[in-house]
Amino acid sequence: MSENNKVNIDELLAKVPTGLLINGEWVDASDGATFDVENPATGEVIATLASATSEDAKKAMDAACAVQDEWARTSTRERSDLLRRAFDLVQERKDEFAALMTLEMGKPLAESYGEVTYGAEYLRWFSEEAVRNYGRTLPAPEGTLRMITRRKPVGPCLLITPWNFPLAMATRKIAPAIAAGCTMVVKPAKLTPLTTQYFAQTMIDSGVPAGVVNVVSGKSASAISEPIMADSRLRKISFTGSTPVGKTLLKAAADNVLRTSMELGGNAPFIVFEDADIDQAVEGAMGAKMRNIGEACTAANRFIVHECVADEFAEKFAKRIGELKVGNGLDEGVTCGPLVEKKALDNITALVDDAVAKGAKVLIGGKPGEGKGYFYSPTVLTNVSRDARVAQEEIFGPIAPILTFSDEKEAIALANDTEYGLASYVFTEDSNRMWRVGDGLEFGLMGFNAGVISNAAAPFGGVKQSGMGREGGAEGIEEYTSLQYIAMPNPYANA
Ligand code: NAD
């Protein structure tokens, strides 16, 4: 355990609720079923939680619906203050949240602390946005009407989160839903539910009323989501996860014409032009690729490097990657943890093998680790064929494939040659080129000479098959509101 984190793991795990949160109470599953949560660095079971059934999901939905009207009538200041208290409590518990995320997800402790800061920021940001949920007054061109708009809470929401950022993906949805006045059922990923369970307890400790936030963890996602999606009282689904599951949920959402926010997969290009500051690009690449063990939807997936600087970039990048210390994220000095599960490790191994079979050269790494955890050595591949799987699919691991190009148009075309459109990165010292390339790229997020771009104050989201809707920023709260237009006669119209 690192010097700066003195948390006693057994005591911490004993504090994490293991039940389902329904109507303000932690309860067992109706059939008594449970599921295990593993530490991916050791393969050991660290907790056993109640596994929600469809019946439990319906009860959670009933609880959310029962208090929706009352919750919608609370003042924005009340909801703002609640979020601010939650922000302060997460800060107080930062050592516990950091240790918990590393334990269940594997990321190095320093990165878990980074996620505590980032994830908590959504609580603070939306506590500030809650009281600025403005409508507009509109001039009627003919002068016959007085017209205003106002934003109302959309209603009960289903929030489904992924395993890779267990705290931030929860706060990015729960905080704007609270700010807007919505009640919710939250379904965390089964690989990393502990952080959400502990965060839900933190919301209770901050004073959230019973029924506003309900949490149903469980081993079968569809057993939980299907009855809720089929309930005509549900008004919105916000989902972060893979594109295939997002498509399934979009189809189900059509039946009740639900409002949807979809934060789906990515295949981010990281373009390095011949005029880039290569050292800056390498530092940017370390953040864009290696943060979160490469398991981020914003992770640089394809390094598209001008042929004149490709060798220099690859060598410097490989040198920096060679400095990473792979191991249990709780151990001092570890900078790259394990993959989240065995399936992920097998997938990464297969992707690298496929690239090598198609002619790629392993500059560094290229092999699974030893021992019980799901480790893979951080890898740089050069000479990667454009039809290698690693250049086509979302990698979700510490693998950096380098492809080359010879002119700007080719770089843009290669970058856009994917069904995804979430994050993109461009490194160049030429500001005209920066804007030109920015105009050409079909991505919701762009980093110009920057490798880490997420921020609670910015609208996060993709285009194409990376999804729809935006989280964070001024736009984030709008996803949880419906706009109502009100008209009345202008008393002076005929005066
Ligand atoms: P996943 O799609 O397998 O699971 C995401 C969530 O959906 C989990 O809670 C899971 O239990 C649930 N789920 C799975 N099948 C379901 C079903 N049939 N019905 C309802 N819920 C279901 O994704 P994952 O492996 O947890 O996360 C990785 C993926 O998430 C990657 O593709 C990544 O790019 C994406 N992601 C996107 C963003 C973003 O903001 N765009 C952020 C983080 C992760």
UniProtKB/TrEMBL annotation:
The active site is at 263. Residues 26-485 form the Aldehyde dehydrogenase domain. It holds the Pfam family Aldedh. Its EC number is 1.2.1.-. One of its GO terms (molecular function) is oxidoreductase activity. PROSITE patterns: ALDEHYDE_DEHYDR_GLU (PS00687). Keywords: Oxidoreductase. It comes from the Bacteria. InterPro entries: Ald_DH/histidinol_DH, Ald_DH_C, Ald_DH_CS_GLU, Ald_DH_N, Aldehyde_DH_dom, Aldehyde_DH_Superfamily. Belongs to the aldehyde dehydrogenase family. This is NAD-dependent succinate-semialdehyde dehydrogenase. It comes from Corynebacterium hesseae.
